[in-house]
């Protein structure tokens, strides 16, 4: 049996699943790792919400320019063929359905693809939504990248989200350290497991799972 | 025809207490720091500020919030690792927060500038941020009615201006500038560079001068302040 996936290995798998020529937005945090694993002949164009297509790698040394940052406000670079545009157009790109795939982190994903990733609902928490709702609603497909279990062992794939929602029925795939799930109209299918047999996975996830197709 | 000045203080001197101000920038990129600091010195208070964030670090918008000048902030992403000045005031109940998904924030500003009375957007449908708002099913999909965000003032940063107010921006510092310029009664822009009329290729103008009221020339190129208007068009004064 294979081992649980590291974040980098998971990022590599997600990158390989993104079709050539796609326009992609990577959420801040873990999903950013995916950009390290695109092959040059994949011709993926990265969109960043703060007004750019053709985002390049993180800037280092002399490349750092305070006018050129990504959604996480980290200095980045531009690739040949990049373009800049204002926020109205940038979110029109999302809302208008022009992005093929967005990879986002999550607190919870429901069996029907509802996403919760912006607010824990704790009374002391200061909520911050950023572009998450626009991406969840606008991209043609939403891939979630997350650890399957919380630090206390609860599954983050749930029958219904208990945290406040980001979007309804928007998630198409869930990539985790333990398994990859596809959210289908027929239910949640496990594509592959890592470091855990299907039966054990099912015993720890309170969502009926369809076994991997061989 | 906009006013051209080298004084950020003069540019913000008319802003009264209680004003609603659109402030450009995404984090620090495109944030009109000199205008905000002039506003801080000017002393206007009880402000409603619209910005993507609620200040980063200790300067600019963060300092304005930290000084207690902002009564309400309308933004998408207030809390960050360096938003401590906002966090303190929010937790103490000293600042009101209207949280808006980033694309709805942008479109509400754009709508104001374009004379749109409201629009139906799918973003936020079925979430806490749409509670109490009118909704409609359109072609089987849920939408939320959102209203324009207009303001008396916009403070933005651009890269280059000509004395007619035509603006270009630089890289991701463009962000909210072009839409905010359209949505305020008085748009005040700080620029790194002013060039004579005719020196910006009309094909690359991002914000046409019709949207700009005051240009603050940070580079002090000498095109403003006492230079006769006809000098702007003569091409004799170079940047």
Q: Topology of this structure?
A:
The complex is a heterodimer of chains A (214) and B (239).
Chain A: H1 7-17, E1 23-26, E2 45-48, E3 52-58, E4 76-84, H2 87-95, E5 101-104, E6 108-110, E7 115-116, H3 132-138, E8 141-146, E9 157-158, E10 171-176, E11 179-184, E12 187-193, H4 198-204, E13 209-210
Helix pairs in contact in A: 2-3
Chain B: E1 3-5, H1 8-12, E2 20-23, H2 33-42, E3 47-50, H3 61-66, E4 70-75, H4 84-91, E5 96-99, H5 102-114, E6 119-121, E7 135-138, E8 141-146, E9 151-161, E10 167-168, H6 177-183, E11 184-194, E12 214-217, H7 229-234
Parallel strand pairs in B: 1-12, 2-3, 2-9, 3-4, 4-5, 9-11, 11-12
Antiparallel strand pairs in B: 6-8, 7-8, 9-10
Helix pairs in contact in B: 5-6
Folded structure, characterized:
The complex is a heterodimer of chains A (214) and B (239). Chain A has a single domain, classed as Glutaconate Coenzyme A-transferase (3-Layer(aba) Sandwich), CATH 3.40.1080. In chain A, 16% of the residues lie in helices and 29% in strands. Chain A contains 4 helices and 13 strands. Chain A has helices spanning 7-17, 87-95, 132-138, 198-204, and strands at residues 23-26, 45-48, 52-58, 76-84, 101-104, 108-110, 115-116, 141-146, 157-158, 171-176, 179-184, 187-193, 209-210. In chain A, β2 and β3 (52-58) form a beta hairpin. Chain B is of the alpha/beta class and 239 residues long. Chain B has one domain (3-238): Glutaconate Coenzyme A-transferase (3-Layer(aba) Sandwich), CATH 3.40.1080.10. In chain B, strands 1, 2, 3, 4, 5, 9, 10, 11 and 12 form a 9-stranded mixed β-sheet that branches. Chain B has a 3-stranded antiparallel β-sheet with strand order 6-8-7. The longest helix of chain B has 13 residues, at 102-114. Chain B is globular and about 55 Å long. Mean pLDDT of chain B is 92; it is low at 225-239. Classes of the chains: A alpha/beta (214), B alpha/beta (239). At the A-B interface, α2 and α3 of A face α4, α5 and α6 of B.
């Amino acid at each position: 049996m294979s081992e649980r996936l590291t974040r980098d290995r998971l990022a590599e798998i997600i990158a390989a699943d993104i079709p050539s020529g796609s326009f992609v937005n990577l959420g801040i945090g873990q999903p950013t790792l995916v950009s390290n694993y695109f092959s040059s002949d994949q011709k993926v164009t990265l969109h960043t919400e703060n007004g750019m297509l053709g985002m390049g790698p993180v800037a280092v040394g002399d490349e750092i320019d305070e006018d050129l940052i990504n959604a996480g406000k980290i200095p980045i670079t531009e690739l040949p063929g990049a373009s800049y545009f204002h926020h109205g157009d940038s979110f029109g790109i999302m809302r208008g359905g022009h992005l093929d795939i967005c990879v986002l982190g999550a607190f919870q994903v429901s069996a029907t693809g509802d996403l919760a990733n912006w607010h824990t609902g704790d009374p002391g928490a200061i909520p911050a939504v950023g572009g998450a709702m626009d991406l969840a609603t606008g991209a043609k497909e939403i891939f979630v990248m997350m650890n399957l279990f919380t630090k206390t062992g609860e599954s983050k794939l749930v029958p219904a989200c208990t945290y406040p929602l980001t979007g309804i029925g928007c998630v198409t795939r869930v990539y985790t350290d333990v398994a990859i799930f596809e959210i289908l109209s027929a239910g949640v299918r496990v594509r592959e497991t890592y470091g855990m047999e299907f039966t054990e996975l099912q015993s720890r996830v309170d969502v009926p799972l369809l076994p991997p197709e061989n | 025809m906009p006013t051209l000045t080298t004084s950020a203080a003069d540019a913000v001197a008319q802003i009264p207490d209680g004003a609603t101000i659109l402030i450009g920038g995404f984090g620090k990129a495109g944030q009109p720091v000199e205008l905000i600091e002039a506003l801080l010195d000017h002393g206007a208070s009880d402000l409603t500020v619209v910005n993507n964030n609620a200040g980063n670090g200790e300067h600019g918008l963060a300092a304005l919030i930290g000084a207690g000048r902002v009564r309400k902030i309308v933004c998408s992403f207030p809390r960050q690792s360096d938003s401590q000045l906002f966090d303190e005031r929010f937790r103490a109940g000293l600042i009101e927060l209207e949280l808006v998904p980033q694309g709805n924030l942008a479109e509400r500003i754009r709508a104001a500038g374009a004379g749109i009375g409201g629009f139906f957007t799918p973003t936020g449908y079925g979430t806490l941020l749409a509670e109490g708002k009118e909704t409609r099913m359109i072609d089987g999909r849920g939408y939320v009615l959102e209203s324009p965000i207009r303001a008396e003032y916009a403070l933005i940063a651009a890269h280059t201006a000509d004395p007619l107010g035509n603006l270009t921006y630089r890289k991701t510092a463009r962000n909210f500038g072009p839409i905010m310029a359209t949505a305020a009664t008085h748009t005040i822009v700080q620029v790194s560079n002013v060039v004579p009329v005719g020196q910006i290729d009309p094909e690359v103008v991002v914000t046409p001068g019709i949207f700009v009221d005051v240009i603050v020339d940070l580079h002090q190129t000498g095109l403003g302040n006492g230079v006769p208007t006809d000098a702007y068009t003569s091409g004799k004064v170079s940047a």
